[in-house]
Hydroxymethylpyrimidine transport system ATP-binding protein
Amino acid sequence: MYAPATAQAAPGIALEGISLDFEGRPLFADLSLTLGGGRTTCILGPSGCGKSTLLKLMAGAPNLDFSGQVRFGSGGTGSTQVAWMSQNDLLLPWLTLRDSVLLGARLRGELSPEKRARALELIHEAGLAGYEDKLPEALSGGMRQRGALLRTLMEERPVILMDEPFSALDALTRVRLQNLSARLTVGATVVLVTHDPMEALRLGHDIIVLGGTPVRVLETMEPAGPPPREAGSSEVTGLYAGLLRRLMNGEAA
Ligand SMILES: Nc1ncnc2c1ncn2[C@@H]1O[C@H](COP(=O)(O)OP(=O)(O)OP(=O)(O)O)[C@@H](O)[C@H]1O
């Protein structure tokens, strides 16, 4: 169970009437979305439709000139509530796995015996026992990405924004990391951008398909059963073909 330091329930996120242009081209025009608190929402859509930009809006990126509102829970902005993970979350080459996982706490001057114990617990839960004092060069790509996931989880923020976190991994490692992520983020509000409909069906309580110009919501889905779902389960296979078709139609929308 995910245990954010802040005792409050993980908030929902509401994007209301978002409009944003890049170089005179409208990316979003009066876009509204609601994402459930304590749930994992997977966002799918064609390349360039604005998925990463949406995540950046939720993260409170200061350099985006937009109108509309991004609200967390009953009010307020989210920048202090979010942790971020992308596919390029390289570990610093000179830090051991343990120090990488503890990096945020160290930078904020918050290192404590409890934090160290939590880091060790996460490392063990992720199947990395014995690698605590290894540098990234001694870890496989999948192990490094597990380290990046643990570093994100150590932030103990109620909202976790993930931008294609598993896309650079081989199929087997990806499934393992998806399962680990689902297990360790129970209770958090997770927004996961992915290109992979199977990943969305395995991990999402909710799935949002975006498409068109300016981008709009083409479809929302709520697959049955708790994530992570088995790739071969009826909940997943029953929705896969339709979701793929929706995405392909969205490319042309
Ligand atoms: N800072 C910026 N300045 C100008 N244009 C930008 C900027 N950031 C993004 N864009 C443009 O906005 C569009 C959406 O970009 P974004 O990265 O959000 O898309 P995406 O759906 O995440 O794409 P992908 O799936 O390929 O990662 C793209 O056309 C991109 O070139």
In short: Helices lie at 51-59, 97-101, 103-107, 113-125, 141-154, 171-184, 197-203, 234-252. The beta strands are 13-22, 25-35, 40-44, 66-72, 82-86, 159-163, 189-193, 206-211, 216-221. The longest strand covers residues 25-35. The pocket of adenosine-5'-triphosphate is lined by residues 22-23, 27, 45, 47-53 (CB under 6 Å).
